[in-house]
Every structure is written in structure tokens, then in C-alpha cells.
From TrEMBL:
InterPro entries given in the database record: Cobalamin-bd (IPR006158), Cobalamin-bd_sf (IPR036724)
Keywords, alphabetical: Isomerase
Pfam families tied to this protein: B12-binding
Name of the protein in question: Methylaspartate mutase sigma subunit
B12-binding domain span: 38-175
GO molecular function: cobalamin binding; metal ion binding; methylaspartate mutase activity
Region (Disordered) residue spans: 1-38
Amino acid sequence: MQPDLLVGAPGGAPSLRSITPRASALNHSEIDTVRDGDPGVMVTGTASDSHTWNLVFLQLLLEELGQEVTNLGPCVPDDLLVDEARRRRPKLIVMSSVNGHGATDGMRVVEKLREQPELAGTRIVIGGKLGIAGAGNTRHTAGLVDAGFDAVFEEGAGLGLFRSYVAALPVGASR
């Protein structure tokens, strides 16, 4: 599989680290948002990451960009993520990590997601703090793409490329 975009260099728009959350933790009963036949975007934390502000920020950003968003919240077990993705069949899954274990969690779960025939047309991206070496560390990017991610947005890379990636998504369907 060829990646759509590789992002690893710092610079550009403000990083996720500088964003302050504007909403409270999500209630899983309030997250079913598939409308008008658009499969929408699914935002999720990794299984080991309990941070919520990054997910709330991503939801608000994606909604600002005109996307319908289902936010699964933090600490999503791999099997729950796979089951929800199979049920919802989003056009894009956005995984976010703040705790520095994003690469480890991401490599494990993307393989499970890519094994599902229902998700063959779903783009899957990951971003945030993927390791513990700090901003600008791009050593996880190639491994995550090889594991099945379509794009990797490392900490410190800014939001401009992520915005461009989302803006280029087809409306109303998976790729």
C-alpha cells in the first residue's frame, strides 16, 4: 500500500501541544453521527492513552472542515475500535496519541483494521506524540506506514498538512 502522505518534519502551523481543549470529556452515548450517507470520520485515542483534549480538538477541527465526526474517546480497546470501524465504515479513521506510546499501539491496531475486508477503502492516519523522544522525531513514520497507515502526522509537524489531507478527502464516500 502506498502512503498518501508522510509527515515527519517539524514546522508550520501550531502543534497539537499548544491547543487548549474547549469541551468536556465525551459521552459514548452521544457520538453516533452518520448523516446524509456520508460515512464520516472516526476519531479515536489509542488503547493506552487516556488523554481527551486532543480528541476533542480533532473533533472540532474536523467539524470545522465540514466532516461528520464520531469520536470514540480515549483508551479505546483494539477490539472495540475494530468493531466500531466495521459497523460505521468511516471514510477516515484518525488515531491520536499524547502519551508517547502511539507508535506501539498504532502498529498493533492498524494491522487488525487492515485485516477487515469492510475497511479496504478506509483511510487510516495517526498523529501526535508517537514516541518518547520528543518533537521532530520521525523514526516511527516509515514503520507506521509499512504497518498500514495512509499518513503519519508526527508531533510538531503542525496542522497545515493534516488540514490539507482532510480537505482532499472525497465527500460522501470512502476512497
